[in-house]
Design brief:
Blueprint: H1 2-12, H2 16-20, H3 22-33, H4 43-51, H5 62-71, H6 82-123, H7 127-131, H8 133-151, H9 158-167, H10 179-211, H11 214-217, H12 221-224, H13 232-235, H14 238-257, H15 259-262, H16 278-285, H17 288-300, H18 313-336, E1 342-348, E2 352-358, E3 370-375, E4 384-387, E5 396-402, H19 406-417, E6 424-430, E7 442-448, H20 453-478, E8 487-489, E9 494-496, H21 502-509, E10 514-521, H22 531-540, E11 546-552, H23 561-577, E12 589-591, H24 596-606, E13 611-617, H25 623-636, E14 640-645
Parallel strand pairs: 7-10, 7-13, 10-11, 11-12, 13-14
Antiparallel strand pairs: 1-2, 2-5, 3-4, 3-6, 8-9
């Protein structure tokens, strides 16, 4: 009977591993509740175990205080005056987003200045008498277009951004982690500029030229030749052909870059499926090689500008194109010098492929960073970014790749079916928000599904640093060295020397003193991806530095009758074997989704007057809630939360 009940409960909660081991767990229940081997279970014993609140993975005495802590009210300040409320909201927004605000203000200001400059310039030229304000609008928009076409290359120069972020002080004032978002904003600016430029010419300038009187058109002859009779005069020109082709290519690239196409969100007929997905986005984006070539040609055949030094298109583009070309050349050379060797390949539940590879000699990275991976057996041209899941001190590199798109599916097929490991190239590492975790003594790491990958690297790095500190301090003690700070007092002054032990030096360099890791996943099998890391943390974290919280959302929330038997099995098995029945690790799992407000509240109450780094990687849906809570608690409590999201 219990075997059937366990199977039904496991099926209802989508726990396939428990279904497979139902017989073993049924025997465990009988062993616990029928110690005298009577062949039956007393109802009182069963009720007591079912109603017992499952002890979760909160360490030490914290579980006893948690209910009291969470019951405390953290209410927002109420303002009766709407003006005061608006002023405070604006102030909070500026304090939290001042880096983005000044960059956007500068960008908009430069565009406004360029547009105004060109508008006034053409208002004072003879062309204004024929084409009016239309030519001013077209030329003003063209000037912003040239600026934005140059600027849009800079956010994708990843080597340059990583260097500026890591080696200069600009990282404190420029939001380099928002580079891809800024790239998209500039693309929107380009779209608006193209629209204004094209409409002003087609709907206004050209009709005015065609319909102008001979006397009024006469000053335009040096620029346009004989007065045009129809639109074909403009279409067949170099300006017209290059302009039309550029607009078509840009429309294709921008359309396929939208989330609906890039993420296969459109339910298109099968013949049109090739127009969606990452491959379509990647190849269409390389149409911009043609676009930039045509843009330079377009700028050399301007109707109203004949002097070479006034044809400024190439001046705008020269430095950004050279910088971008250098970046691509560096990537090609750096990655082709030596291909990494694949040491281990594992295919996990949830369609996840793990690659362990050799680490090149000069490959230095920080936890939280990412690198690009290329596999010629899938595509010799495509490079895809993945978070590095190994720690900097590990003697290997690893990535965990979930098969979500066409390229990743082909990669998994190649590594699953071939008799040898195909050649793999890597390029990186590149900067990411999570690498800044060492700036905080307290960090809150949140991973959704495969979004746990950069957080795992951080957790491993913390563990490695803990082990190294312990080993160094043990060596110092064995050698008779003082592991504390030496203070020397003289008659004239008191001086404090730096720590004598290397263990203390490392401890001083490693700021993180407390880490909370929340991993939320739908599938029980996902926990297999990082089972070794979870067990290592549970074994080595003697000082309770890392607090692990695994959530399986397929299981009904704790307290629900449908998950009561699972909770009972969890308690029994963990008490007897030290293994969680859901995750298969030494870390006990939670059911359903976390209450994120309670998570923030608990961290705020545990760490008053502290700065907490919140790092999130996963689906965009949770970004808004986590960011809002970070701002909310930063304003309501003495704890300040800095929210960071992986954007690559």
């Amino acid at each position: 009977m219990y075997l059937q009940i366990i199977s039904l409960s496991a099926s209802a909660n989508k726990l396939s591993n428990i279904q497979k081991q139902a017989e073993e767990y049924a025997a465990l229940i009988m062993e616990e509740l029928d110690p005298d081997h009577l062949g039956c279970i007393m109802i009182d014993n069963l009720e007591m175990l079912l109603l017992q609140a499952p002890a979760q993975s909160v360490k030490g005495g914290e579980s006893r205080n948690l209910s009291h802590m969470l019951s405390q009210k953290l209410k927002p300040t109420q303002f009766d005056n709407p003006i005061r409320r608006c002023c405070d909201s604006t102030t909070y927004f500026l304090l939290d987003n001042w880096q983005r605000v000044w960059v956007m203000a500068l960008w908009i200001g430069v565009m406004a200045g360029l547009f105004t400059y060109k508008y006034i310039q053409y208002k004072n030229r003879a062309a204004f008498e024929v084409m009016g304000h239309c030519v001013c609008m077209a030329k003003g928009a063209a000037e912003t277009l040239k600026f934005n076409m140059a600027l849009i290359l800079l956010p994708v120069c990843r080597n340059t951004i990583t260097w500026l972020r890591n080696k200069t002080k600009l990282g404190g004032v420029v939001p380099f982690d928002d580079n891809l978002n800024f790239h998209k904003v500039i693309a929107l600016g380009i779209s608006i500029g193209v629209g204004i430029h094209a409409i002003s010419h087609l709907a206004c300038d050209f009709p005015r030229l065609i319909n102008a009187s001979e006397e009024k058109y006469e000053p335009m002859e040096p620029y346009f030749g004989d007065q045009p009779k129809n639109y074909w005069h403009f279409v067949k020109s170099v300006e017209g052909v290059t302009g039309i082709v550029m607009v078509v290519l840009m429309a294709i690239a921008f359309t396929l870059a939208t989330p609906w196409f890039r993420r296969n969100k459109l339910n298109l007929p099968k013949p049109l499926k090739k127009l969606t997905g990452f491959n379509a986005f990647w190849y269409s984006h390389h149409l911009f090689v043609i676009v930039y070539t045509l843009l330079i040609v377009h700028g050399q055949y301007l109707y109203l500008t004949k002097k070479w030094y006034k044809k400024t298109t190439w001046m705008y583009l020269a430095i950004p194109i050279c910088l971008y070309a250098t970046e691509r050349l560096i990537r090609a050379l750096r990655s082709s010098i030596k291909a990494v060797s694949i040491q281990k390949v594992a295919v996990y539940p949830g369609n996840v492929l793990a690659l362990h590879m050799s680490k090149p000699d000069r490959f230095r990275y920080k936890s939280g960073q990412y690198m690009f991976v290329n596999c010629a057996a899938v595509s010799p041209f495509e490079w895809h970014p993945f978070s590095i899941t190994s720690a900097p001190d590990d003697d290997y590199l690893s990535v965990h790749i979930r098969t979500l798109g066409d390229w990743t599916r082909q990669l998994r097929t190649v590594f699953s079916e071939v008799c040898y490991f195909p050649r793999v190239l890597i390029d990186g590492p590149y900067g990411a928000p999570a690498q800044d975790y060492k700036e905080y003594e307290v960090v809150l790491l949140v991973g959704l599904g495969i979004g746990a990958t950069p957080m795992i690297s951080i957790v491993k790095d913390i563990v490695n640093n803990m082990k190294a500190i312990e080993e160094e301090e043990e060596n110092d003690l064995e050698n008779g060295r003082d592991t504390g700070f030496n203070t020397t007092t003289s008659s004239s002054s008191t001086t404090t020397t730096s720590p004598s032990s290397s263990g203390h030096r490392r401890r001083d360099q490693f700021r993180t003193r407390r880490a909370y890791f929340y991993w939320v996943t739908r599938e029980q099998g996902s926990f297999d991806w990082f089972k070794g890391v979870m067990n290592e943390v549970a074994e080595l974290d003697h000082n309770n530095v890392i607090e692990l919280h695994n959530y399986c959302t397929s299981v009904y929330e704790e307290g629900d009758a449908r998950s009561a038997l699972i909770a009972m099995l969890q308690s029994l098995n963990h008490a007897k074997n030290g293994v969680d029945v859901v995750s298969g690790t030494r870390v006990k799992s939670h059911f359903a989704k976390p209450n994120w407000r309670n998570v923030y509240k608990r961290v705020a109450l545990n760490h008053p007057d502290s700065r907490v780094g919140v790092f999130y990687c996963g689906a965009p849906a949770l970004t808004k809630e986590l960011r809002h809570l970070a701002l909310d608690f930063s304003h309501k409590t003495s704890t300040k939360f800095d929210f960071h999201k992986e954007n690559f």
